Amino acid sequence: MLGPLLGGPFQRQAWAELAWLAATVPLTAAGFAVLVPLLLAGAGLAVMAVGVPLAAAVVLAARRLAGLHLRLASALLGENLPPLPSARPAGGLLGWARLALGDPAGWRSVAYLVLRAPLAVAGTWVVVALWVYYGLLNLLAPLQVLYHQGQPGFRPFVLRAPDNAALLTVRTAPGTLALLAIGMISLLAAPQAVRAVVAADRLLARAVFAPGRLSERVRQLEQARARALDKSAATLRRIERDLHDGPQVRLAALAMILGEVSESLHDVRLGDDNEDARIRGLIDSAHHNATETLTELRDLSRGIHPPVLNRGLETALASLAAASPVPATLTVTLPARPSPAIESIAYFCAAELLANVAKHGRASHAALTVTGRHGRVVLTVTDDGRGTARQVPGGGLAGLAERISTVDGRLTLASPEGGPTAVSIDLPEQP
Amino acid sequence: MPVPLRVVIAEDAAIMRDGLTHILTHRGHHVMAAVADATALLAAVDAHRPDVAVIDVRMPPTHTDEGLHAALSIHRSHPQTGVLVFSQYIETRYVAELLTGTPEGVGYLLKDRVANVSEFLAAMHRVASGGTALDPEVVRQLIGASRHAGELAALTPRERQVLALIAEGRSNAAIGETLVITPGVVTKHIASIFAKLGLPPSDSDNRRVLATLRYLQS
User: Fold this and answer.
1) Domain layout of chain B by residue ranges
2) Would B134 disulfide with which of A30, A390, B16, B138, CB 3.0-4.6 Å?
3) Which residue of A249, A250, A302, A305 is the best one to mutate when testing the B interface, meaning the one whose CB has the most B CBs within 10 A?
4) B59 touches chain A (CB under 8 A)
């Protein structure tokens, strides 16, 4: 019981906690003193264009500062909180501002810095008062009193309260011993007081940043899903490319050579009639199989990743519209290229919807529009058919809705009796 | 034996490039250069001014449509050089790009078609002599996406076969051979088709092909 108390100043943990305060108090103070006024200014100026980016910049700065606190807490206090989720950059100044202002981790960082300000003050007070003022200075008191005693102009040693009221005036040797005792008690108590402040610090950091908060978990999962979708899109693209550069081209060359062999043997007699027919049959069959396999491979590979998508969604959709059995017009307004995963989903949706128009719509014309706005991509296929399209379980539209639900896409269908039918697919620009 | 042609090949897969070079050389054609990317292709065409360039659509560095752009550029700068584009896929959008302007001396075939060597060589000859060579798949898409579905529905199945072969760029004689009918019957079918579609009759193979393509795309 007494051991840890007496050993206080000599424990590693005490020094680590002291280092934590020494390192973070200036950070918190700077954050509070600079960011909070700027944030208020940003809110005040929000009606003007400059306010929003200012507030966004403050939130981002607070996020970085809080991230630094978290790293220090991990290194010095062993407080292992998860790092702040990375912010995914969005295009443009406005997208950037929206990202910063809509970022829960950023606002939590601001709250942390504001709430930590009083703790930083308390920590400073404990360190200055107990370690320095009542502790180290008092240890030096006997030296001063002994040195000056009996000399003319001797000033008694005065222990003062923080408000400068004299607490104790010492002129005698036993008095200095009392001061020495106060100093030692102070130094023994200082780590405990620091620990109390740091304990409050730990609680605050945990309360603000600890995982297990549902929204945080959702955000992490969304990011993991986006990474998984991007990765799978990249993998599909690579598989298509490997098929194209490997088996497809080899098979085409094989078919070409078999074709050449067959033509070269055209005027050559291969043994007797039976033998001749047998060998030609074999060659023709090999030739036929090679070309059939090539066709199957092409359909397979196209279902994996249509290569025309590499040229962008607009070109790919133009190709779809041009090949559509029901004449289709295409209008694309996309300020930025969506992520590959979204492009692929949009393409397959458009293909399915145009095929539906040809199959059921009894339409003479279809319109395919793609509009990008506010981080969303909306694809709409309208036809002038007779309408009454329904979303039935297990049907094509239900399949589409299921497919786009993996990226939080939405399908809306308007198909009154007598037409027209409009199907809209609303997708995020990034998964 | 048809006239030997001066050919430049652009194909990034060595196995295909070498195979084509072998077959063309064996058939008496002159392969002036066989290159693996679009930059080398343009340089080779500038240097050799070939009768025809056989071009793969996907080539380095991006492996998307370098070959198509090179073909369009050659078609503009060297109109006397035919461009025969071949590809693993038919993209209707690329067809439209190739057929705008003067689609003379232009071809677009699926890579599979090289398996039928004689047909492929016939297509190459057509393109080299200013004709067109479109893949049956291209023609199927053009007819499928045509705005003239009503008029096309008035054709007999035989006439539709003949129309598809015209759109592929084939001559009357070739159509007759393919469908095993006499030249007189072919001429009769064509006259009937052109009347039903409201196209002016024309006596040259090339002009007939162009009129048909323009009609299907309009």
Assistant:
1) 6-134, 141-217
2) B138
3) A249
4) no
Contact in structure between B61 and B44 (CB atoms under 8 Å): no
Domain range list for chain A = 2-211, 219-304, 311-428
Rg (CA), chain A: 38
Strand B30-35: give its sheet, edge to edge: B30-35, B6-10, B52-56, B82-87, B106-110, B132-134
Q: Kindly give the pairing relationship between strand A421-428 and strand A410-414.
A: antiparallel
Task: Report the alpha-carbon distance of residue B24 to residue B30 in Å, rounded.
Answer: 7
Domain spanning B141-217, CATH architecture: Orthogonal Bundle (1.10)
CATH of domain B6-134: 3.40.50.2300
Of the partner residues A260, A306, A311, the one whose CB lies closest to the CB of residue B23 = A260
Contacts of residue A87, Cβ cutoff 8 Å, sequence gap at least 6: A60, A63, A99, A100, A103, A105, A106
Name the CATH superfamily for A311-428: Histidine kinase-like ATPase, C-terminal domain (3.30.565.10)
ipTM of the modeled complex: 0.90
Q: What are the angstrom distances between the C-alpha of A78 and each of A17, A84, A122, A159, A184? A: 10, 17, 21, 38, 29
